[in-house]
Specification:
The structure holds 2 protein chains of 2 kinds. Chain A contains 14 helices and 2 strands; from the N terminus they run αααββααααααααααα. Chain A is mostly helical. Chain B folds into 2 domains: about 210 residues, Periplasmic binding protein-like II (D-Maltodextrin-Binding Protein, domain 2), CATH 3.40.190; about 160 residues, D-Maltodextrin-Binding Protein, domain 2. The chains are: A mainly alpha, B alpha/beta. Chain B: This is Putative spermidine/putrescine transport system substrate-binding protein.
């Protein structure tokens, strides 16, 4: 009885289950529904609106002109496919770097080395996104670091091109792949490696048959980040892409002049990500994330 | 030859007359179709006390501490600057209603006026808007509609052809070096990354393919637009990189990625290297003519009006022009001193013949701006859509 008197809030929450749940979920739900989903829905709804050809102002309507425009001009399709290709390449490259690095860090490296590498991977996250892209711009410009360093060996860099966009995005999103992969490998019991070796498996066979299956959820979690972040990016294409046009470039070009087309085209990356998530769900990996 | 370079101001003035309903038959050959429904927005009647601050959207270099601080000292209006990179960004920012003033180029101003985003200006409150303003910058279609003034001129300039004289050793006389497939600088060419750049292709075609019948690079029918896009697609194969961010353009030249391409005088200046030179080729060029416009929703109209007046005075207007690298709107600046005279000479400030070769940015609309009535021209949305297929 005394506790009710001294802690009225706790007592109230204890008595009412609804209140308890409500106080727990109100804030995240306001954020998720109110800010996140509603603003996204408002943006996508613009795709069906009418745009004044003179002033570029939009008025609410329900029409499919913007989607027809996307279908009638083949460049939208080729840009979508190019962006998809870039996002997939970035994801594969990140995974290809993250797995050996993760195995080394978790199983081979000394504690000092492990700490050093963990800092090295996360350190770039502390720098601004734009700063990192500009760093890549300085590196790959014609008279930049890459060409002056490797030029001695007769190697000339990719300049500002699609491969540079892939490299830059991989550089940007690599930590999001490396960290879950490293954590997952650390959690694999050492005795599984021993058992695998006892049964006669060499290193590579162990990686393929023991590590990889246990790693799938982490790889998929990481790939959701690298894939979707790459799909939406356009600053990298603008600053190091040269002639590269991505989905984001077109949305950025249209957002002021023709908002319905920008909104309609925004459905494309959303569709890609939904398809990707459905695909990974079928593998069962999402349940184990 | 002269005829093809029919000055846009002359045409615009004719159209403006028609718009005002004064001269429906004054040889405007059908431009009477060109009517705009402009929302009725009230004008400031008289000035009152200054507010605390004025929020300005401007091109880089228009609002600098050197003259903004003096303004703040004199009036108490703190100047908040927001630099915008493109006209489209300016239009979008103005529509938020958070800003009092914008330094709008011709391709933004029509949209802003017709959209009701900017208010007509009471020029009596701006004594510096006087006879000193150069002839070519008064009464432009895109800042004066229905006899009402919406814009106070700041300055004008051409989109120049900039080149690295270490690579391009001879001064180019034609834009062909950035358009033709056999250009010796293939792979080192830069182009402006915005749909308005289609007009640059049109200017080139106007000169080299007269059979297309382009009279005004901002009035393209479907066939003419297709021809311009085809030229841009050919150019795409020669491009090192497109630029929309001015800083990226400067580093593109400075870093050796780009040797030649479209530029602004201020970017050449910022590159701070004498090997970068600029020229206006024989075909003429696109260009811009900027004017201050005041927001319909301005909450500091008194500060805003005084800013427009302050920056229209010969001295401050000249400072802006020199800083940005353009021709000042106030011709009286040219007589202030030797430095000013040299600047005016370099930028052809008083040379209307030079500016007859420059097609100021204008919003392309469905009504043909060149007065044709037998076809429908392509709107800016169609340009934006077509621009997507340039880069593929």
């Amino acid at each position: 009885m005394t506790s009710t008197a001294t802690k009225p809030v706790s007592a109230l929450l204890y008595r009412s289950r609804r209140l308890r749940l409500g106080s727990l979920l109100t804030l995240p739900l306001v954020w998720l529904v109110g800010l996140y989903i509603v603003s996204l829905a408002l943006l996508l709804a613009t795709a069906f609106w009418r745009v004044d050809p003179f002033t570029s102002k939009v008025t609410p309507a329900f029409q499919f002109d913007a989607f027809e425009q996307l279908l009638s001009n083949q460049a939208y399709l080729s840009t979508s496919l190019r962006t998809l290709g870039i996002a997939l390449t970035v994801t594969l490259l990140s995974a290809a770097f993250a797995i050996p690095l993760g195995i080394y860090m978790a199983k081979i490296a000394s504690p000092w080395m492990r700490g050093f590498l963990a800092v090295a991977i996360t350190l770039p996250l502390w720098a601004g996104y734009l700063v990192k892209i500009l760093a890549m711009r300085v590196t790959f410009t014609e008279e930049g670091f890459f060409n002056s360093f490797f030029g001695v060996l007769g190697i000339s860099g990719p300049g500002f091109s699609q491969p540079t966009v892939v490299l830059t995005l991989t550089y940007l999103w690599f930590p999001y792949m490396a960290l879950p992969v490293y954590t997952a490998i650390r959690q694999i019991p050492v005795n599984l490696f021993d058992a695998s070796a006892d049964l006669g498996a060499r290193g590579w066979t162990t990686v393929r048959t023991v590590v990889m299956p246990l790693l799938m959820p982490a790889l998929i979690a990481g790939s959701v980040f690298t894939f979707s972040l790459s799909l939406g990016d356009y600053i990298a294409a603008e600053l190091v892409g040269g002639r590269t046009q991505m989905i984001g470039s077109i949305i950025a070009n249209n957002i002021n002049l023709n908002p319905p087309v920008a909104a309609a085209f925004a459905f494309v990356p959303v569709a890609f990500v939904v398809l990707y998530l459905l695909g990974t769900r079928r593998t069962g990996a999402l349940e184990r994330m | 030859m002269k005829k093809r370079y029919r000055a846009l101001p002359a045409m615009a003035a004719a159209a403006a007359l028609v718009l005002a309903g004064c001269a429906a038959d004054a040889g405007s050959d059908g431009a009477g179709e060109l009517t705009f429904d402009v929302p009725d927005v009230p004008t400031l009647e008289e000035k009152g006390d200054y507010e605390d601050a004025v929020d300005i959207i401007a091109w880089s270099g228009f609002v600098e501490p050197e003259w903004a601080d003096v303004f703040t000292e004199e009036t108490g209006c703190v100047v908040n600057r927001r630099v915008a990179g493109t006209s489209d960004e300016m239009v979008q920012l103005m529509r938020t209603g958070d800003y009092d003033l914008v330094s709008a180029s011709g391709d933004a101003s029509l949209r802003l006026i017709v959209g009701g985003d900017v208010a007509p200006i009471n020029t009596e409150l701006i004594p510096n808007f006087s006879d000193d303003i150069v002839e070519g910058m008064k009464g432009q279609l895109y800042d004066t509609i229905n006899g009402k003034v919406y814009g106070i001129p700041i300055g004008r300039g051409a989109n120049i052809l900039q080149y690295n004289s270490e690579i391009v050793t001879e001064e180019p006389t034609s834009w062909d070096v950035v358009w033709e497939a056999d250009s010796p600088y293939a792979g080192q060419i830069t182009a402006y990354d915005a749909p308005i750049y289609i007009a640059d292709a049109a200017v080139y075609l106007m000169h080299h393919e007269p059979e297309l019948g382009i009279e005004n690079p901002y009035a393209l029918d479907e066939d003419q637009l297709a021809a311009a896009i085809e030229l841009l697609q050919q150019q795409n194969g020669l491009i090192s990189e497109y630029w929309s961010d001015p800083v990226a353009q400067i580093t593109s030249f400075a870093g050796g990625t780009t040797a030649i391409g479209t530029s602004w005088e201020i970017l050449r200046k910022f590159a701070a290297d004498d090997k970068f030179k600029g020229t206006l080729p024989v075909e003429g060029s696109t260009g811009w003519s900027d004017a201050w416009m005041i927001s319909t929703e301005s909450d500091s109209p008194n500060c805003a009006y005084e800013w427009m007046n302050y920056t229209s005075g010969a001295e401050v207007n000249g400072k802006i022009a020199m800083n940005f690298g353009m021709a000042p709107a106030n011709g009286a600046f040219c007589e202030l001193n030797d430095e000013a005279a040299a600047h005016c000479e370099e930028f052809n400030a008083l040379n209307e013949e030079y500016f007859e070769q420059v097609w100021y940015w204008t919003t392309p609309i469905e009504q043909c701006l060149d007065g044709r009535t037998d076809v429908q021209c392509t709107s800016f949305q169609e340009w934006t859509d077509a621009w997507v297929s340039v880069k593929g």
